[in-house]
Amino acid sequence: MNYETILVDYHDDLATITFNRVDKRNAINDQLLVEINHVMDVLEKEESNRFLVLQGQAGVFCTGMDFDQVTQDILSGHPLRFNAKDYMATLKRFNSTSKVVIAKVDGRVLAGGVGIVAACDLVFATQQAQFGLSEALWGLLPANVMPFLIRRVGYQKAYTLTLTTQNISAQTAYDIQLVDILADNLDDALQSVLKNLRRVSGNTVAEMKSFFKKMWIIDETMENAAMDELQKLIQSPMVLDNIKNFVLHQQLPWDKEK
Amino acid sequence: MNYETILVDYHDDLATITFNRVDKRNAINDQLLVEINHVMDVLEKEESNRFLVLQGQAGVFCTGMDFDQVTQDILSGHPLRFNAKDYMATLKRFNSTSKVVIAKVDGRVLAGGVGIVAACDLVFATQQAQFGLSEALWGLLPANVMPFLIRRVGYQKAYTLTLTTQNISAQTAYDIQLVDILADNLDDALQSVLKNLRRVSGNTVAEMKSFFKKMWIIDETMENAAMDELQKLIQSPMVLDNIKNFVLHQQLPWDKEK
Amino acid sequence: MNYETILVDYHDDLATITFNRVDKRNAINDQLLVEINHVMDVLEKEESNRFLVLQGQAGVFCTGMDFDQVTQDILSGHPLRFNAKDYMATLKRFNSTSKVVIAKVDGRVLAGGVGIVAACDLVFATQQAQFGLSEALWGLLPANVMPFLIRRVGYQKAYTLTLTTQNISAQTAYDIQLVDILADNLDDALQSVLKNLRRVSGNTVAEMKSFFKKMWIIDETMENAAMDELQKLIQSPMVLDNIKNFVLHQQLPWDKEK
Q1: What Å distances lie between residue C134 and A199, C30, C64, C173, CA to CA?
Q2: CA dihedral defined by A194, A196, A198, A202, rounded to 10 degrees?
Q3: Distance of CA B235 to CAs B64, B76, C5, Å?
Q4: What number of H helices and E strands is found in chain A?
Q5: pLDDT tens, position by position, for chain A (258 residues)?
Q6: Considering CB atoms only, which of A121, A151, A211 is closest to C141?
Q7: Residues of C with CB below 8 A from A193's CB?
Q8: If contacts are CB pairs under 8 Å, which of residues 120-159 in chain C contact chain A?
Q9: Does the predicted model carry a pTM greater than 0.80?
C-alpha cells in the first residue's frame, strides 16, 4: 500500500509511523485512520515486530480533526468523512494489540491528537511538547478522547482541560501523568525502556491488555456514549458553521458572537 | 428575596455568593442551602450570567454542618433540619447548571465545606486555605462529600483524609488536585482564566456537564448510598451526644472516652 | 499458635507482624497467609487493639509469590499450594477489619508484596524502600494486585508498572501515592499519625471501610476476574517452566528465548 498521510519505517522489532500531513499540521482525516489501521494489519501478521511508535514532526505531533476536510464536505454536500466510530476503533485497537504502542511527542498536540496520545501504552515527550483540548471553543467536545484521557489523568484534570481549553506544557502533562517519560533525547530514552520491554513477550502484552479492560470503567456503554456525543455535535449546524467560517474566513466563534 | 446567610453580588456576567454566617464560621444550615439554590434559580433565568463564584471570608470558607442548629433540634425535639438530600442536591446542581461554578478559598474548609469545594468546576485558593475532614472524630463520615472528592483527588487520598482527619495545607491540596489554581491574588487569577472561559458558550458548558456524567462512576446508586449513610449516622444517639456535648460543654468525644 | 513465617508483637493498642522468612526474602507462601489471618482472628476478638502494622526487615519487605514452593509443588506433582483466593481474601480482610492496617516499608517490595502494601490503610516508607511488579517477566500478571494498586495510584501508573516491570524508588512511589508518608524514622512518623487516629473509634473505622466499598469500582466481578486470571496463568506450562528453570538453574525466561 502507498501511504498518503503517513511515513512508515520498519527497523528490527520496531515500526514507526510518522504522521505526514505537515501542511495540515498532521490533522486527522479519514485516510489517516485507514492507513494507521493498515500498518497495524501488517504488523499483527509479524510476530517478530513488537513495538509501534507514533510520531509527528518537531513542532507538531497531531492537531485533531481535519477542519479543512469537514469544510469541503459541508460545501460539497458530501456526508462527513470524519467518523467518530473509526477514530474510537483505532484508539481501542492500540489497547488490544500485542504490540506495545508508544507516542513520541516533540510538538503540539491538540484535540483528537490528545486522544491518540492518551490511548498509547507509553508516552515519551520533549519539553517542546504541549497539549490542549480546543473542542469546546467550537461548540464541540473531546468526547472520544475522554475515556482514554480520564483513565490516564483522572476525571478532574480531564474535565478542567476540556472546560478551560487551555494548553498545558510538557512538564504539566508529565505532572498529571499524560506523559510518562520526559526527555531531551527521545530515542535514547526509548532505547533504555525497550531493553526491559523486550523481556516481556508479545503474548503477555496481549494478555495484559485484555485483563486490564476488566480492571477499569470503560465499557461498551461508555464508548457508545462518547461516539454518539461526537456524532451529534459534529452534525449540529452551529458547529458546522463555526468550522466553516474559520476555515474560509478565519473567523473565530467568539468573535462572531460579539 | 432577603438573604440571611449569604451576600450576593452581580457584576457583568459573574455572580458572587459570599457565605455570611461569620459568627457560625460559615457553617451549613438548612437556610444556607435554600438560599444558594434560590440564587441559582435566579441565575438560570439569566442567560447573560455565566459564572457563579462561591467564597467565604479571609480565614474561613465554610466549616461544614451547623452543629449549633443540630443541637437546638436535639434539645427541642425538632426533627433535624439538616438534610443529606438537600446538601447532595445542591452539589449535584453545580454539576448540571450551564453556569461555571467556581470556589474562591482564602481560609479554612472543613467537612461538608470540602464537599462544596470538591463539587465546583474550578477551585482557586490562596496559601491561607486549609482543608480537613473532621467527621470521623464525631462518629460521622463525610459520606456525601466522597463522590465529589474521590472524583477530584482519587480514591486513596479521599480515604486517607477521612481516616486521619488531618488538615492539609493549600499546597498539599493543590498537589492532590483538590485546588486547581493556587495564587496570592485570587481576583487576578480568576480574571485570567475567565478570558478563556468566556469563549466557551453556556450551552456547551451544560452539554459538557451532561456528557461527563457518562464518563465517570457516580450514579444514582452511589448517591443514594452516600445520602443513606449520612442520614443513618446523623441519627445515631452516640453521634448526637457527641455533637451536643461539644456544643453545650465543649467536651470532645475522645476526651469523654478516656 | 506457633508462627513459622512471622513474628508477632503486641504493644498497647498496636500489634506488629514482622514477615520472618529472611532466607526466602519474605516471599509469600500458603503458611504466611494462614498466619496473617490467624493474627487477625486474634485481634478481632480484642476491641482494645486498634492498629496492625506489617513490616519486613531493613532491605526487604516482601517479594511476592514463593517460587521455591511453586517449584517444589511442580517437581512433586503436588497441587500448587499458592492460591489466588487466599491471597485476595487476605487483602480484602485489611479493607473490612475495624483495625487500621499499616505497612512500614524499609526495603524491597516485589510483585504480590506490592499488593499487600497497596491494600493497607496507610503506607509508611523510608528512602530504602523500592517497588516493582516483575510478574510479566515470567509470563505472569499482578492480577490480584491490580484492584488495590489501581485504587491507590490510578489506572495508568498501575498499567505502566505492570508493562515495564521497572522498579520505582520510594520517592516515586510517594509521588504516585503508593506511599503515604515518607520518613527517615518510621516509628516517629507512625506515632505522630497514631495520635490523631486514636481519636477515631474502631466502630467508625469499620463503618468507614464498609461505606467506602460503595464509593469505588471494585466489586465481586472484578475480584473474580483478578483471581481467575492469576489461577489461569499460574497453571500455564510455560509459566511453570519459567519459574522452575529459574529456581533450579537460575535461567531467566528472556535468556532462554534467545
Answers
A1: 10, 20, 9, 16
A2: -110
A3: 17, 15, 46
A4: 12, 10
A5: 799 999 999 999 999 999 999 999 999 999 999 999 999 999 999 999 999 999 999 999 999 999 999 999 999 999 999 999 999 999 999 999 999 999 999 999 999 999 999 999 999 999 999 999 999 999 999 999 999 999 999 999 999 999 999 999 999 999 999 999 999 999 999 999 999 999 999 999 999 999 999 999 999 999 999 999 999 999 999 999 999 999 999 999 988 754
A6: A211
A7: 164, 166
A8: 136-137, 139, 141, 143, 146-147, 150, 154-159
A9: yes
Q: Are C90 and C35 in contact (CB under 8 A)?
A: no
Q: What residues have CB less than 8 Å from A146, skipping those under 6 apart?
A: A158, A162, A226, B211, B212, B215
Strands B6-11 and B14-19: antiparallel
Angstrom distance (rounded) from CA B209 to CA B92: 10
Nearest-Cα residue of chain A relative to residue C176: A177
Side chain identity at residue C239, one-letter code: V
- CATH architecture for residues C6-185: Alpha-Beta Complex (3.90)
Note the ipTM here: 0.97
d(CA A107, CA C207): 49
CB A233 within 8 A of CB A140: yes
Bridge partners of B65, per DSSP, are B28
Cα–Cα distance measured from residue B174 to residue B125, given in angstroms and rounded to the nearest whole number: 9
CB-based contact B106:B54 (threshold 8 Å)? no
Query: What value does the CA radius of gyration of chain C take, rounded to a whole number of Å?
Result: 18
Please give the torsion angle defined by the CA atoms of residues C242, C246, C252 and C254, in that order, rounded to the nearest 10 degrees. 0
Of C222, C253, C257, the CB nearest to A214: C222
Q: Residue C122's beta-bridge partner residues?
A: C102
CB contact burial C92-126 (16+ within 10 A = b; e otherwise): bbbbebbbbbbbbbbbbbbbbbbbbbbbbbbbbbb
CA dist., res. C79 & res. C60, Å (int): 29
Rounded CA gap, C140 and C118, in Å? 19
Contact A228, A145 (CB under 8 A): no
Which of C143, C164, C252 is the closest to A197 by Cβ?
C164
Beta-carbon separation of B204 and A139 below 8 A:
yes
Contact A52, A80 (CB under 8 A): no
Q: B155 vs C215: CB contact, 8 Å cut-off?
A: yes
Residue reference for cell 492496617: C101
Burial class (CB in 10 A: 0-12, 13-18, 19+), A202: middle
Contact across the interface for C198 and B254, Cβ inside 8 Å: yes
Q: Distance between terminal CA atoms of chain A?
A: 49
**Strand, helix or coil for residue A169:** strand
Q: Which chains touch B (3 or more CB pairs under 8 A)?
A: A, C
C177 vs B contacts (CB less than 8 Å): 154, 156-157
- C51: part of which helix (H) or strand (E)? strand C51-55
When CB atoms are compared, the residue of A154, A208, A216 closest to C136 is A208
CA distance A22 to chain C (A): 31
Min Cα–Cα distance to chain C from A177, Å: 8
Q: What is chain B's Cα-based Rg?
A: 18
- Number of CB atoms found within 10 A of residue B75's CB: 11
For the record, the C-alpha cell of A208 comes out as 495484559
* A240: its cell numbers: 458546522
Chain C residues touching residue B148 (CB < 8 angstroms): none
Distance of CA C79 to the CA centre of its chain: 23
Strands (E), chain B: 6-11, 14-19, 51-55, 59-62, 100-105, 107-110, 122-125, 130-132, 168-169, 181-182
Q: Is the four-CA dihedral B42, B43, B49, B53 of positive or negative sign?
A: positive
Cα A205 from Cα C258, distance rounded (Å): 18
Q: What is the DSSP letter of B45?
A: T
